[in-house]
Amino acid sequence: MEGAIIAATGEIVHVAIVERASDGTIWVIDSTPKRGVDRHPLDTLKADFPEAEGYTYLYARPKERSNQYVEQAKRFIGQPYDQAFLPDNGAMYCSELVRDSYRRPDGTYLFSDKPMNFRDSDGTFPQWWVEHFAALGMPVPQDTLGTNPQDIYTECQPLR
User: Fold this and answer.
1) CATH number, domain with residue 63
2) Each residue of 95-145: pLDDT tens digit?
């Protein structure tokens, strides 16, 4: 899946919410195919993604209401991973979790939705996506409004 994400959206393939507990423990709230939406120590994330050795872990944290966003993310713990990458279906992929957790008090999102892209640079669907969505019995949800890790990363830059 990582290769297909890179081909369609960019180099960033996963985003998560980081929580620093009062005792200094670092927790991660994220959504993965293996765990669904889960809260676990940072070491668990590193163990789940051993191929990411040497990757940079970015902590983009809005100064205002950061605890509120963490608490909002905790409400989603236990939801399954969204294999279909569709909005509002009771399951969440990683950047959907971040987008839905980072809501302002007025209900608007801090991160914007955009038409999703599953095509690679030559405009075709990588075989991985074709097979993945065929196995789910659905067409590739090209242009469905949603999020992706690269866009979340890009929108975080002013927040760092």
Assistant:
1) 3.90.1720.10
2) 999 999 988 889 999 888 999 999 988 999 999 999 999 999 999 999 999
Is residue 140 a contact partner of residue 86, using CB atoms and an 8 Å limit? no
- 54-61 — which CB contacts under 8 Å span 24+ positions? 57/18, 58/153, 58/156, 58/160, 59/18, 59/160, 60/153, 60/156, 60/157, 60/159, 60/160, 61/18, 61/159, 61/160
Total residue length of the chain? 160
Please state the pTM of the whole predicted model: 0.86
Domain total of the chain: 1
Enclosing domain of residue 47: 2-159
> Could you give the CA distance from residue 90 to residue 26 in angstroms, rounded to a whole number?
27
Residues contacting residue 128 through CB under 8 Å, at least 6 positions apart: 1, 3, 4
DSSP per-residue letters across 88-115? TSS-B-HHHHHHHHSB-TTS-BSS--EE
- Give CA–CA dist 148/24, Å, rounded: 29
